[in-house]
Amino acid sequence: MQDPAEIQTFVERRQTQRAPVTVRIEYGSVDAMFSEFTRNINEGGLFIATEQPLALEEQVQLQFQLPGGDEPVKASGRVVRVQEATADEPSGMGIEFEELDSAARGRINELVLQLRTRG
Length: 119
Description:
Layout: H1 4-13, E1 19-20, E2 24-28, E3 33-42, E4 45-49, E5 59-64, E6 73-83, E7 92-100, H2 102-118
Antiparallel strand pairs: 1-3, 2-3, 2-5, 3-4, 4-7, 5-6, 6-7
C-alpha cells in the first residue's frame, strides 16, 4: 500500500485539478496492449482504473476518444502513481503525459473546463 505522504506529494505536483471522465482507453507497454477505462483526466495526465497496473516509471503509449471528439487522442506517458483499491477508489495507475500534441491538449483543457462548470 502506498504511503499517504507519497500520495500527498503526488497531488501537490499537479498543476491543475483533474476532472472526472470515463472513456475507453487503449494503452500499451513494451510487452502488451490493454483496454480499460479512465477515471479522470487533465492536460497533464489521467488515471486508468485497472486491476493490473503497470510498474512505476513504465512508459506507455495511449489512445483514447474524448467525448464529442472526432479524432482519437494519441499520446505517450509514464506511470507516476500506482493505487490499490480502497472503499472510495478503484485500483489503477496515474499516467503523466510526456508527449501530447497541442491540439489534443487544448481539447482536453476544454473538456475539463466544461466538466468543472457543470459540477
